[in-house]
Amino acid sequence: MTGAAHYTLTDDDAGGTTLALSGQYLVSTIGAVDDQLARIDGNIHTIDLTAVEDIDTSGAWVACQLAKRYDAEIVGESEAARRLLDAVEGVSSDAALVPERVPVWERVPVAMGEKVFAARNGAFGVVSFLGGILIGFGVLIRHPSRFPMKAVVRQMEMVGVSALPIIGLMSFLIGIVIAQQGAVQLEQFGAETLTVNLVGRITLRELGVLMTAIMVAGRSGSAFAAQIGTMKLTEEVDAMRTIGISPIEQLVIPRIIACTFMMVLLGFYSSIVGIIGGAVIGQFALGIPFFTFLERIQEVVPLHDVWVGLVKAPVFGLIVALAGCYHGMRVQGNSEEVGIRTTMAVVSAIFAVIVLDAFFAVFFTEIGWG
Amino acid sequence: MARRPSRKQAEIEALRAIPAHQRFSDEPPIVVEGLVNRFGDFTVHDGLDLTVQRGEIIGVVGGSGTGKSVLMRSIIGLQAPTEGRIDVLGRTITGVDLDKKIGVRRRWGVLFQGGALFSTLTVGENVEVPLKEFYPDISDELRREIARYKVLLSGLPEDAIAKYPSELSGGMKKRAGLARALALDPELLFLDEPTAGLDPIGAAAFDRQTRELKETLGLTVFLITHDLDTLYEICDRVAVLADKKVIAVGTIPELIETGHPWITEYFTGPRGRAAQGAYEQNKAREADASASGASGAGASE
Question: Which of A152, B28, B156, B244 has the most CB atoms in a 10 Å sphere around its CB?
Fold first, then answer.
């Protein structure tokens, strides 16, 4: 019979048992009989392979293990089977496939200790990374010919220009939502005209820049971490160092400049598109004509609101770029690390941006730019 | 060269998957006919034909960029060819779903150039992956045992089983990759530059092992290499890729006789001569050893 492994047990006069295997003992068929073979209970002294039609290393391995367990003799094997048996005979091992897990009472303190050390190393890492960037800027100021203009322009395109559609769409929709929801609430006080103030001030002061920073962190901060991380894995970064090119100058600084600069433009663009979104809703839902809405914006939004947004934007851009590049440079080991570091870059960038935004809010109110 | 008429699509569809337990049919394991691979305007292969015989180690050589790796990727179904037909183990694999219709994936093992181990799994777990995927009925215990002896058979030490790929050297990664390629006892083994980046001792050991595996398991081996020693030592035939085709297939002396300038330069350049010299010395030494062994046996009788 083809396509299956079989066996029979025969008692002989000497009081022992002969285990006769038949059929095909292959990796594809062994799963069906292995359990039963393991459960045989008896005094097997001979394993007869005469009726085995086809055998591979898995079959040979099982036969060999059986022979070892019962101290039995293998007879009747074909020449091919003999070669396989010889090949697998000497190679038994009990080694575990995965490194052994340490018990919980050891693992927890070890993990905590590792976290502390990681935090210390992280702090050192951040400081030396920032130092490296300062030195890099210093070198570039002293040797302006080394300024990586091409890389900066390319990064500007990737961070800024190609983000225009998605950031525009996002801001437009946010403008619409604020205007529409704001109008519903303000109507209760008969103050729907204040919707203009609401849209103008919130987009220019807060949301335009904040949402853009979050979007840039997701789009570009993650890309920075993944790009630089992959370059570390493929030893590109090491190659640059050996040639005498500083990875900080060539990889990190262009991204920081591009991201910082582009955040200003993107943040402003986002605010403007948000206001346009509000004006569109004004036209269709509130009965405020489009251009009247825009004129009202000029009257009700103080100029310092624009400055608040524009001061915050480069700071957020810097934070996003620093987080992305820092985590990218920290990648080592395997591809999993790239994923972990990319996630960390995005999460820490967004977190830092939101915390800083809160500080900025308090600060600007204190200095009278309420 | 007389071409077999191409099979009709319906005929191809009608062929069922090869049953897992049916091994070693008589058909040539690999038949490539009229293969064309084009990337945009760039033609890599143009009407390439190649037949690999059962049980042989065929070496594939060619200058850089002649499409050796593309040929291998086409045969293992990673690269859909622009035109042409590829039969593997008697089943046409071009234009059909490899798993559903043909079931050939479980019958070949592939060793990629860098080992291509799954970096989040240990070596042992890497070897378990194909076993788990294709034969879920094998018990966990047996699967672990199979994984262990495959790793050991590939020449790695016991403590390498529980290591992650990032902890291994390049040569060890290749051996681990070989263990994974052999996990299912395949009939067909694809090796992409197996000895590149290994030290000479490691490379020689890898060659020896490939030959032993071929003899023990009856493998057919498709081997891409630049290593002239490997070509001389273990390849039964060598296929030369140039001008977008296989320009010649045969043993090395046969190839040199064709007089094609590239082949001549390849095998009779300084490196080719050195490899040939080493090969002949080895042969002579083996012959001496067996002769003295025989005379010793004769004397003792």
Answer: B156
